[in-house]
Amino acid sequence: MPVGKFDYDQAFDRNLGWLTLEEQAKLRQSTVAIAGLGGAGGFQAQALVRLGITRFKFADPDVFELTNLNRQIGATRESIGQSKVQTLRDMVLSINPEAEIELYPDGIHEGNINAFLTGADLVIDGIDFFALDAKLLLFRKSREKGLPVISSCPLGFGASLLIFSPQGMTFEDYFDFAAEMREEDRSFAFAFGLSPTPLCLSYMNERASELGSRRASSVSPGLMLVGAITGTEAVKLLTGKKKTCFVPTVYQTDLMTQKTVIRTYAQGMRSPLMRLKKWIILKFFLPSQKKPATQAGSVTVKQEAEKVL
Fold first, then answer.
1. What percent of the chain has pLDDT over 90?
2. CA distance 151 to 230
3. Which of 87, 232, 268, 284 has the fewest CB atoms within 10 Å around its CB?
């Protein structure tokens, strides 16, 4: 079937009514840098290109694997073994052939982070959960350049949203990272900060989080939510349509439990209460991460711990 002539105004006409002509024009001229094109980044790119954003920077060193099929929009049987940045570039161009896309197939690192961020209006963190050094680099350099960063994470059948302002709380301060932290402890602190009110605890099992073996479960509805949340916040940040809440305010929603929480943590995850919550989760819900002084407890004790959380 022949491909028809592309017309931007017609392609994105159905956005109008929810967006004004002026807002659509701002999106068209905006540049978004997405670091990580896997589960989160793929759906984030999909939402942004369909909103009419035309200029992108994509960074990811990985290729698609069979284990990605359950949750990553770019993963198909045909794309297994293919570069994620190349595949997502082709996906974006199949929607908007006028899109301008810079590729960073080595991911982000000290040698290219400045080029990756130069010219960007907004930064999206889609970096793999366990690549914390790359995340730290992204957030530090984005702050230096005065760029906001959206970080939205799937949590079971839900998602969380953290937006870091270059003038607000730092990534390290919010997540309560210490200078000489072990990798295992840092990973847990990061996971906890993404979900300080863990709405998914009631239906998760021990396979959902295996930090020691660098495995974290996720399902497609949570990642679709990540795309929707990120797209909405990108519109707010790029057009000024509505007020944005920055960290230490955190938004969490869960479709399985039908619960939504928006809370501000003035001290981030450093407060005594949040450190207590971390201890409770380690003791009663993640016994494989650290061996507690007593057995993980009865169902009754676990239910009482859930009330505290």
1. 77
2. 8
3. 232
